What we know:
Among the domains are: 97-209, no CATH class; 261-293, no CATH class. The strands form 4 sheets. Strands 3, 4, 5, 6 and 7 form a 5-stranded antiparallel sheet that branches. A two-stranded antiparallel sheet has the order 1-2. Strands 8-9 form a two-stranded antiparallel sheet. The chain has helices spanning 6-13, 19-26, 29-44, 48-51, 113-116, 153-156, 171-179, 274-282; strands at residues 2-3, 87-88, 124-131, 141-148, 182-191, 194-197, 205-207, 212-214, 235-237, 242-247, 253-257. With 294 residues, the protein is an alpha+beta fold.
Amino acid sequence: MGREGKSQRMVDKKELKDLSALIEMRLSRRQAMHYGLGSLLAATLPLTACSQKQIGPEDKLVTPELLGFKSVPVAHLVDEVVVPEGYRAEVFFRWGDPVSDGPAFKMDASNTAGEQLQQAGMHHDAIQFYPLPRGSGNAKHGLLVMNHEYIDAQLLHRDGGVFDSPENYTLEKTLKEQNAHGVSVIEVRREKTGWQIVRPSQYARRITAQTVISISGPVAGTKYVKTEADPLGQEILGTLNNCSNGKTPWGSYLTCEENFNNYFVLPTKAEFSEKQRRAWKRYGIKNSYYGWYE
């Protein structure tokens, strides 16, 4: 969505800095860790010096600068994306679009699991922009990273998911559903005609429920991340139900999972302890929306 006309040129010239830009200017990763505890203490202690200052007539209240667009009426109920006057909305990156030079989307839902692995996942959620070159602050070329939270099996497959046609539910369908979850990384560039996706791109990739992810930091190798698949606790398999996200001061991407309980079923095997059963039940792990456990 972009602003048209004279106002667009005025906004482009302003040197506005968001919180992440200010942090990047002032703090390196090491400094952020060093000052983190002090900042936390400062935030929790009473600010007596500030609270004692009285506001006088010489103090002026600063009104935050607004974007200056006309609000869209709440009662405007139409089946389309409605934006304020002077703005425009365009379809940019849809479910099934290739992240790089992969296969095209097929309207009859016949794309394979392998093809979905090279395409945008379903239901885009939180998005972050990373300038290229890294750390340059370039607003016209960079990486767009986005989450894909969940799927609609009725749209993903020709005959629906496990609850629509359980007799036809296959491993191929499971893999396609898992590949429609996760994260997409695409390279974008702003041209004279508007924003474009760079294809092919050396940076473009997908992270899905099947992607092997290395564990680092203090938790690596501990009992909390050791599994039957990886008894050393060095790797985990995939990510799913990706909702919110964030950008760290040192430029890495945080993707946040939610509602994971909808993907698993409560085990019934006798070897699981009562403590484990209570923990799973506490998180609501009992019924799965998918057939991945079959």
